[in-house]
Model the fold of this input.
Amino acid sequence: MTARKRAPSGTTAAAAAAAAQPKSQETTTAASATTIDPPIAPPKSGTILKLSLLLIVPYAYLILFHYRVDGDLKRSILINAALSLTGFFVTRTLIPVASRYVLRRGLFGYDINKKGTPQGSVKVPESLGIAVGIVFLVLAIIFQYFNFTSDSNWLVEYNAALASICFMTLLGFVDDVLDVPWRVKLILPSFAALPLLMAYAGHTTIIIPKPLIPYVGLEVLDLGWMYKLYMWLLAVFCTNSINIHAGLNGLEVGQTVVIASAILIHNAMQIGASTDSEYKQAHAFSIYLVQPLLATSLALLSYNWYPSSVFVGDTYTYFAGMTMAVAGILGHFSETLLIFFIPQVLNFLLSLPQLSGYVKCPRHRLPRFDPQTGLLTGTNDGTVVNLFLRQFGRMSEKSLCILLLIFQAIGCCFCFVLRWFLAGWYK
Done:
């Protein structure tokens, strides 16, 4: 098989671009396959079952038992959950099939964090996020039959949301295949968010925090076009932040699973505590998007968890980021969503000097791997991954990923505590 590695550009800016999406693999393409590659390792079902129980049980308890949810609303949520469960098994079955096709087309990578070991020479199928994106979109379209009528006020925004997610998934796959420059990567979500922005018919107002009302003189402020600009920037940030905070087996999908679980719990709490039907529908709308995202992502994680059998590619990171951005925007909890993204915000701030070209940026901003010990050592690159290694010392890739996901969960818990503390005083 004739193969090539992604060649770094001779310019500093292009080198910084590649670091905008640090990966634990080097994508390789080839014209044709001359050998039959072995099947990928089976899914890690035990790990996913434990993680699912840990993350889903609190949400299920809130929706089914703790709060009295309207019958029709609960019915729609349960139908969506049943479709999502089906999507989990379909995705789990589809990934090995898709893996054979991408290997046949020469779209695979080598795990850089295992270089120098037997696992480092194994061809790992790339861009398997396309399987998750396809299943998600099919489920979301089928769900319309059960929940929306032709005159539904939410149908236009729902289809616009799916158009943005589909657009972003396609652009992510194009990036995986063509390896577009980093400056183009940054603006791809800008185009994908257009269907959502054009179809958005919701409010453009914000509630002024109570301590600021005497100074502003208003309780509600209409931002107009500035609110849509904020929506656009949020979509761009969420999409790129998942792509940048990467580089370990299971990290991209793991952070998505944690944030998606937090979004579901937040939506359940808001539905249970509110008496406003329109407010409840907005949060239910978010649930309709995030439940299938969580289910299909768990299926992907069963193959992507350490040691990874597949790589998710930019296809998945763009898809997941856009889906959560859409859920936060149309669910009207964008402020809460940003707090859920605390680790991603920190990672972005640490990355700015290198991404802007002020500090020299290597192609892969990954830790150094020692094949003798199997441990990773942090470098001076501006990422949370390297920051944790510098602060906590050398550790294995699996341990580091678990630590980062715990940090993600702590950030989400901090958001809930902050909302509880500020309730009634801030807004």
